[in-house]
Amino acid sequence: MDQMSLYFQATLTRVWAPTGQTPIIKISPQREHIHFYGALDLMNGREVAVTALEQTAHVTADFMRLLLMLFPADHLLLLLDRAAWHSGPEIDQLLADNPHLELMYFPPACPDLNPQEHVWEQARDARSHNHTYRSFPPLIDDFETFLNETPFDIEFLEKYAPPILCEF
Predict the structure, then answer these.
(1) Residue 165, pLDDT score
(2) CB distance 131 to 10 below 8 Å
(3) According to DSSP H, which parts of the chain are helical?
(4) How far is CA 112 from CA 2, 18, 35, 79, 158, in A?
(5) Residue 62 sits in which domain range?
(6) Considering the chain, what is the average pLDDT of its residues?
(7) Residue 14 in this model has a pLDDT that exceeds 90
(8) What is the pLDDT of residues 94-110, one digit of tens each?
(9) What is the pLDDT of residue 60?
(10) Which residues pair with 51 in a beta bridge?
(11) In the chain, how many domains are there?
(12) CATH number at residue 56
């Protein structure tokens, strides 16, 4: 599970172009942005992503409640970075009320270990880098659709999980 911010201002990346034809990407001076909360099911590559106006412990707890509703019979282990909004009294109460929900935190400064970071990277590559959207709402919609409809092949379990977990 993780969060990211999507800005209307296009992020630039390398792109192929014919020799002598420099690609032109129009950059908006606007700093409009929205946050996304996302969680990747490591067993099947399914992503659950929603937009949020802010990143707070309250919004994080709401997203965890959504995951509990979507996976009511499952034991959930959420892998998180150490963002300030991933802890606090509201999260502690949610954990106390839901013993089938557990949190495990990545070591500091290890974003490459977080499978969700790789999902964000694929979504940015596919939708927001070098974009040509004229307004922000269609970019948000396309970004969210890409996240929720794309099966992601993340090899996290094969790389880091004990072999017994990969048999399920």
Answers:
(1) 47
(2) yes
(3) 57-70, 89-97, 115-123, 136-149, 156-160, 163-166
(4) 12, 33, 20, 12, 15
(5) 2-17+24-166
(6) 86
(7) no
(8) 999 999 999 999 888 88
(9) 97
(10) 36
(11) 1
(12) 3.30.420.10
